[in-house]
Model the fold of this input.
Amino acid sequence: MRTLAATLALLGLMAMGGPARADEPPPAPEHTIDTGAMAERGEFGPAITLEHIEIVGNHTTSRQVILRVLPFAIGDRMAAGDPRLRKARFKVLSLGFFRDVTMSMRRGSAHGQVVIIIGVEERGTVVLNRLWFGSSSIAPWWVGADLSERNLLGTGLSIGGGLVYASHDEVLGSRDQWAGEARLGIPSLCGGPWSLAFALAAVRGSEAYRKSGASSQSDAEHYLAFPYRRTTARASASYDITALARVSFGGRGELIDAELPVAPTRVLPDGRSVPVALHLEPGRSQVLSGFASYDRDSRADPLLPHSGSRLTIAAEVSGVFLGSSYDFASLVARYERWWPLRLPRHALGVRVSGGLILGDAPRFDWIHIADVNRMLAPRAQGLLVSTNAPLQALGTAPEKATEGELGGAASVEYVYRLFDRKHSRIYAGDLFVGAGLWGLADSAGVRTRDRALWDSLPIDLFLDAGLRIDTDIGVFELTVANTLGRVPR
Done:
């Protein structure tokens, strides 16, 4: 970045026409710039005026889509080392439409004017976001996919959707399940920093809950299930506060129709019978909530990162004052940081995430064990498709919650860039190995403890290793954890 800034400053000096001859009076300045203010903003170099912005390589993407995300416009006056010039590349990359973005500058047609040249290398915009498939003791098979078109007809509009289907096994009360979602995104509304997003989802499921046995026993005979339906609508607006950060605000409306069992219980391994809390209102209920989030991403490559960081924080509030059947609040935060090592192609990363649920949240808003333990199968579009038990490696609490109000994970990951092809449909590949700790607890488990502290801790270890491949249609992960989550155990 320092090299780029120095180059831009030098070209800006050239655009000014060079120093005046000794026998000529100095030209009158076209405009003045407060050098003190420039220093405070981190700007340096001569004053320039953007005469034109030239875009090269956008064969399918509209020129306006790129122009409206730039932090400057034709006619702007700035210093040649203005930070906006350095941040513009990341802003264009953040669109997700391009494999690479380059920036350069040349002299304009008049004294003090320059032309900014933005070169883009387009990538496929039809993306396979998720691919669901596998088998478990409660679902003999499940299959589904989620696709997006991130740049519809070159307009910058994004549309997407997903569909998943899961068969049922011998769990009493279960049935075949399906779920679907449709999405629409409108980036840079009217060319400004605002964007809009809308989503509509429908679920026809059957939720399994444990009726007997220890948490390590995942056979279908230890579970019962109840049927339910969910219909959810979301709308949000986002504002780009800087080239790398944005805030979002929105709302959710959800209708739930659940046929709950009367007084469900579980028989513990010692023979005691305890009630089971399903965390849903019987019959029809609704969730009405508002949410807000903050996202800052400085990773040079958000798909296979080797440098930079990302921080996301999201909060949601629901209550009877909004017309909801549930009073709750949630807070979720994630942070990752990557450092390139001295050896070429090598990098080290740290990931930390955590969530907190306060109040009476519906079952589907609780933190699921697969949200913090990547060695287990996550919910597929909201459907519970697996009850596999987690790895018991540390000798901590043997009875670990599968849903909780407090959860998180922390991991360290080493990556090695196996290949990097700029002009291919398979762009790059990373080998990686990682390990970390995860934890999940509900309020009842936090309040009571009948054994030593270590034996009661709801934490354990997870491991993962494999290959990540960045392709024209998305990122594919061939990993140990991914495989373990898709097979019955």
